[in-house]
Structures are given as C-alpha cells and as structure tokens.
Queue: 2 jobs
Job 1
Amino acid sequence: MNIPSGLPSEPLLGMIVALGDDELVLGHRNSEWTGFAPILEEDIAFSNIAQDELGHSLAWFSLHEQLTGKTPDWMAFERNWRDFACCRLVAYPKGDFAYTVVRQFFFDAAEQVRMKSFAQSSFDPLRQLSVKILAEEAYHLMHSQGLVERLGDGTEESHRRMQAAAETAFPQSLGLFEDFPAEADLVKAGVVKPSRELQEEWLTEIMRVLTRATLVVPVRKKNGTFEPECSPDLGGRTGRHTDDLRQLVSDLQHVYQLAPGQPW
Amino acid sequence: MTEKSHNEQLTEFEARVARGDKVEPGDWMPDEYRQNLIRMIGQHAHSEIVGQLPEGKWIPYAPGFRRKLTLVAKVQDEAGHGQLLYRAAETLGKSREEMIDELLAGKAKYSNVFNYPTPTWADVGVIGWLVDTAAVINQSMLAQGSYGPYARAMKRICYEESFHIKQGYDAIVALAKGTPAQRAMAQDAIHRWWYPTLMMSGPPDKASPHTEKAMRWRIKTKTNDQVRQEFVDLIVPQIRALGLDVPDRDCVYDEAAGHYRFTQPDWEELKRVINGDGPMNKERLDVRRRSHEEGRWVREALAAKAKRANAA
C-alpha cells in the first residue's frame, strides 16, 4: 500500500505510530490489573479493555507495516523507547483504581472524538480503521463513564480518591491533544482535524460526565466552550518522555530481547 | 402429610445419582454431600483466582503481540472461571464473600500447583500445557458429576481450557524449535513442573479417605490415581515428541499394562504445600490480601451507590 501523492507521508506515518503507541502503552498498563482488580467483574473488564487496546495498537502497526514494511512486533518489541511517540498520560504507573478509571475515561472520551473525526479523513485507511475501533470503544466509554459516575459520587472516600485522580489526570490528558509533528500539513491535506478542535469537543463531553460525578477540574467557560486553566503535560509526541516509559518499555521487551527477532 | 424419613430420602437420592440423574439446587441432598461440594467447588474457585498470579506475573514481559494478547485472555478466563465457580457454590448456600474471606484468612485450600514460583517465560507455556492438561482430565471427569450447576460449569470451563492447552503447547513448541537457550528454558521448566503437576490429581487412592463416598455420590467419577495415570499416558509421548523429557528415568511404557510407569511424587511435599507451607503460599495469599484490601473502597462505594439507587 502506498500513501497517495499529495498527502504528507512523514507526518502521516508519525501520527499512525503515535496512535499505535498510545494504545500499546495504555493496554500494557491496563493489563497490570489482570489478577489484581477490586472485584472479579472489573478484573475481567480491564483485561478485556487491555486486549482491545493491544488489538488496536496491532491494527495501527499493521497499517504502518503495509506502508513501511516494519512488522508490528518490531515496532513494539525492538524499537528504542526514545522513539515511542505516545502521550505521557498513558505511561504513568497505574496508580490506585481511581486513577486508572479516570485516566481510562479521559482516554476513551478522547478516542471517541478522534475516531469520529477520522470519518472525514482524506486518507481512506484512517476512515476504515476508525469504524472498527469505534465499535469497541463505545463499550469502553460506557464502562469507564459508569465507573466515574458511581465512584465519583459513591462514598466520601471514593469521592476524595476520584477527585484527586481527576486533578492528576486532567493536565496529563491534555497531552492527548498535543499537536502531532507537522500537524498543520496533515490538517491542510484534510487527513485530520486540528487537535485543538478535538480538545474542545472532548472537554464538552467530559464536563458533562464530571458534573454528574460531582468532580471538578480546572476549566473556565468562555463563549459557551470550555478552556483548560492549567498547563498541559506535553512532550510525548516529540519523544520527551518520563522515566516511566523507559521502565515500561524495558519490561515490555524483556523476554523478546533475550533472542530478538526469533520466534517466541 | 407424611414426612419421608432421612433414610428413605437418602435411598432415593442415591438411586437417582446411580441412574446418572443430575442433582439441582432446590433438591433434597444429604448435608455431607452439600458440604463436600461447597468445599470442593470453593477450592476449585480459589484455585482459579490464585492461579491467575503465577502466569499473570509474565503479562508485562510476554514476548510479541500474539503472546501478550493470548496470555491476558488466558488469565482473564481464569477470573471468569472463578466467577462461574463461586456462582455454582452459591447455589448450595454459601456466598462468594464468605468463601473469599476464608481464602484470605488462610482457612481454605486451593490447588498445590499454584504455590510454585514461575522464574522464566517458559513457565507460562508449561503451565498452559502440562498443568492445564492435567486440569482438563480432572475437570472432564467432574463434568460427569452428579451436581448439575458444577457439572455444567465444568463443561464450559473445559471448553475454554482446551484453548489454554493449545496456547501453552504452542509457546513451548516455539521454544523447543528455537535457540539452544530457548530450548533449555523449556526443558528446565518441564523438569520443575513435572512432580507438582503429578500431585495435582490429589493423594494416592490408598491415602484418600473421601474417595469411596465421593464416587458413590458421583461427586467424582474417577479416582485420583486413575486421573493421574491418564495424564501421564497422554502427556509423556507429547513431551518426548518435541525432543524434551520428563525428569524420571523410570518413566517407561509398560506394554503389558498398556500404561506408562512412573515414579510417584513426594506425597509429604504435597501435604506441606496444601497445608500452607509451599514455596509460594505466603506470597500468593499476601498478594491476594493486599489487592483485596486496596480494592475495599471500590466495593464499598459501588455498594453504597447501588443502595441509594435502589432506595430512590
């Protein structure tokens, strides 16, 4: 498969990798709950979400493979961690269940907005892949949104933990909307909508749920739209990662690197 | 109205069971039958939940997309099996919470095999292949048992376990065909898991006092020794076909008997491990207790919210 002439290939490939990395790294984090969740039903749910995310990552990297020839396993298990392009949000340790739930909700809501925006992309494979991903993400969002509402407005302790988690995860989540490198070229070619616009839509979505959950994040309303009132936690898209990612990738690649490139 | 005497009821019950009828939750059953099943199903459920840990340890490190995905799915299945089994035990009158509390208090038993360490990636393959093969032989037998909800749970679990076996076998085949180091890793894991897996089917028949009644009531349909022999006969040729071996020089095929001979495991070790003194018992329960404690606020909040929703 070739990238149609007229589309900026380098930025497009970069974005595909970034989206694959987001899913890979969050899938890895969620799978850390397998065996350890507060109730069996959530153990099963988070294992399921982890599999879906790893599956989405595989789908992004498979598209990338069709365009570049690099295998998904090479991308995930042989690439240097500094070349990952995930946002910082997904690499932070899983924390308590409140942090996991809030991060997941912010991520799921962002994914909805982004995948829906791909329906108008000038790059066909994005349109096709987003349909498949949206079908699964609808369940993720239902699940994480339900948990945010119930735990946000559950007991005093659950409210306190969820509020703390929201305060931590909110600026981090703004990193989901950090511009992709050379994003302006992608916007101009009709491949994507500007991240700024997606962030606005996302804020409207999450504020609706956070209000019902009695949770507060630093935003102000201006001309009918929300704007964040904190500095976003950026850097992931350009490879400025925290040490958490280095550790995560080292775990991820640990066994594979005992005999790299060998069938395992 | 004439009440049937206990003896009459027992005779009827045993006749039903002997005919191969299933006993269902509301039916009359001897109290000993009920208690035995609660204990067995509870232990089985605990084994699934504790059994998530030895393999779950390798989820972060699983090499390659395919291995990582199938391992998460497998360990997730175990949580699902636990859920299903706790539900089956609940039909006999004991709640999941009570059973989990007993597990965490160290009062309940679970399979010996999950109290051994998993130091290498190959352990994941060997557990899926050897341990799950032994489990499926046991569980196919239990699927023929007399208590309906347990037998039906076993059918479904066996179906999923057959994929686990494939997953484990496939991982070991990759190692057996791989570099010398990969191959050595597979062989080492088989050596370590051989005897613990043989012990899984329980103590030898001559030292198993419950067997006679369990067979009469069709709680079990085969003895421990029968199940163990079936496992050895099935697995030894599979292992040798990969050019790997079991750590037992006396393990040879006996033409006349039509079975493999094998060295009995150390039954004292089984006793120790089952009673809490195995290499990983403390660690396994500590981990379970810690995550149970850390999740308490979640369970409380969900319960509080549900209660308010019901009251509204």
Job 2
Amino acid sequence: MSVKQGLLALLAEEPMYGARLRSEFEARTGGTWPLNIGQVYTTLARLERDGLVEPVGGPDVEGRISYRLTELGRTAADAWWRTPVDRDSTPRDELVIKLALAVTSPGVDVAAVVQTQRTATLTHLRDLTRLKASAPDEPNGHDLAWQLVLESLLFNGEAEVRWLDHVESTLARHVGMPLSPVPAPADLPDVAQPRISSRKGARA
Amino acid sequence: MSTSQHQTGTETRTTGPILVLTDVTRVHGSGQTEVVALAGASLSVNEGELVAVMGPSGSGKSTLLNLAGGLDKATSGAVEVSGIRLDSLDAKGLAALRRRSVGFVFQDLNLIPSLTAAENIGLPLELDGVSVRRARSQALDALGRLDLRELADRYPDQMSGGQQQRVAIARALVGERRLVLADEPTGALDSHTGEGVLRVLRQRCDAGAAGLLVTHEARHAAWADRVIFLRDGRIVDSTGGPDSADSLLAEAR
C-alpha cells in the first residue's frame, strides 16, 4: 500500500497539513501502519512535484502549510477507489519462502516448523480477538474502520492457519517422500530416475 | 460486554482447576482392531478459563470432550471434575455429577423442541429434584446473565440458530454448573452469529466458569485463553497460558 494513495484520499476530503495527515491516517487505520512525519513530508513534496497537490497559501502562524488536491490529484484519488489493488506486486511472504525451503532442505523438521508457526499465529489471533472483544458494541466511524482493519488481520491469520493445516496434510500424504534438496546441476542426469520422478509427481 | 472484558485483565487465577485430566488414555477394541483414541493426555482447566482444542479429524478431540464430561470412560488415567474423580462414581453418581456440574453444548439438537427456553434450562435442575418454581427462577437468572430474558417462553423453533446456541450455553451453566464442554458450537451458524455465541461463552468464562471448546476454526479458537493441539490422541503443543507449551511438550514426550 502506498502512502501516496492514502494521502491523496485524505486530501480529497479537505486541505490538511502534514502532521494532521499523519494523525488522520493513523487514526483511520487503527495505528496498524504507523507513519513517520518525514515520510509524510517527502511524499507531499513528491506529490507537489508531480502536480497532484499544491499548497494553500503560505504557512500559518505556527509555520504549517496546508495542501489541497489539484485537478490531476483529484483524478488520481478517484481512480484509486475504482481500481483493484495490484496483487502481482504483493510483497513476498517470508513464511511461504521458509516452508518452501524447509521441505527441500535436509535435516529440517518441517512438521515442527509448521506447528511452531501455527502456535504463534493462533496466539496472535487470540490477541487480535481480545482487542476486538474490547471494542465498543456500537462503533462510530473511526471505530468501524479500526474493526475492519482488525478483521482483516484476523482473516489473514485464519487463512495462514488453514494453509498450515493444508501443508501438514499434504506432507502426511507424502510420508516417506524423500525431502532431500533438489539435485545440484551436476546431478541432473539423475532426474530420470524413479526417486526424483515420484517427487515431481507428488508435487503436481 | 466491555465490563466483562475489563475483568479479564485483573481477574485472579488463583482458584483451583475445575477440570483435571491426568495421563488419560482411551483405547477402543483390543488386539488387531485396537484403536488408541487418546494416548496419555494431561490437561487442566481453571475457573475463568476457556481452553480450545484443535486437531485434525480423528485426533481425539471429541473423545477428550466426552471423557471430560463423563460420557465415556478412560481406559487408564484420571478425570476429575470439581475435585471429584469420575472413576470413583457409580453410574448414578456419575449421572448426578453430570447434571450438577457439567453442561454440554453440541453443534445442534441442543434443546428439546417441546419445551420452552426456560423449561429447557430448568430441566437438569428439575431432574435433580429442584422444584419447578425454583428451577424456573434459576433458568430466568441464567437467561438474564446472557441478556436473553426475552427468550424465556419461546420454543426452539421460534428462535434463530444463534439464539438456540446461546440458550444452550445458558443451560450448560445453570445453577451450580461451572464447566461447559462445547463441541463445534458454532457449526452451522454464519460468521456473525457464530461470533455472538463465542462472545457469550467467553463472557461466561470471564465471569468464572471453566470452558473446553472443540473447534476446527482458528478464528473461534482465538477466543480461548489457550489452544491445545491434538494429534493422534496426543497433546502435541499449546499456545501460552497457565501451562506453558514447554511443560506440555515435556508431558507429551
């Protein structure tokens, strides 16, 4: 998620100065993605350079400069709501990489890796649920936003546990499958041998 | 709702355990056809605590719950409810303990269709010799604690699935009952309704009950203070809580 789009969305409501943008952003997302003020100012500078925002007059008595959207900026803000989030550029997931490496590395107890993660993820889910349980029953706008953020984190955690269950049952079905590393280039002629081909088959 | 949560943080957990399983094994059949449903499980659930049990099908979750509630007998090991060893009781004593100390909530078919909510809740008390009037007043108390007073005179088919499950929880904890054993209590409910049921269970545990919850859903297990993982009849891991994961792992080995 780019800070740029978030700031444009906030400025579409009314002009704001940097510190207010930062506090609005954090309040609306429940503090899940803290911004540092430097990030806000560099982003504003870049948005101004690209003609998406412009200062509203000069600094106020406290030296703060408010920014508002330009026409171009408004178009960009509107476009963001209409466009799906690009999933191809989703950051790499360390857990996926870890397990992919675990099943192909000799001497790694994959089941233990899975269980350790599941325990940790469930503990995390429990903490999120406690936060949710302490939220007010009749939320105002900001509470609602925070609840939705919490729910998103819960759904992600839940999906992770389901995936771990799946990994485990997949491994169980392939019990006895050699979990040796993929052959080094020098071993490539071995590829045609049964052991390797059954591995490939099992994966498909 | 929020007040019960505030209690969680400050609540003292010095009170004794309500449910204690010590090295409990359950074997079905013998010889060639022998199936070990539970293999040396140890676990305790204190007052004010909700413990979730997760694990693949066939891992022993339901066996654990049935043994805890005296619906099944351990092959070896001890099950204690409120300080009483279940294997020290005869059939009659066991039935009485189940009526007085343990409440069950299943996936469905919890309530008797021909009885109102209040009558359903009062039934275990009446079976135990409590007068109809007193049973009703305790049933109304139990409903009141769950903000369900208005359901008292409705029959199960006049209630939503979520309401029925919450009434089942009220019944599970009516009178002196302190232990609720729940087996997938949110089974057929949509996620919002299911969450309402879990909230009620959580709230009752915060108010001092002990709960053991079997579920396959991580988001439901997340309402518990700790989660126990079963695999092939063994407790293989647990999230933090009164029993640390390390001690449980040591026991499982």
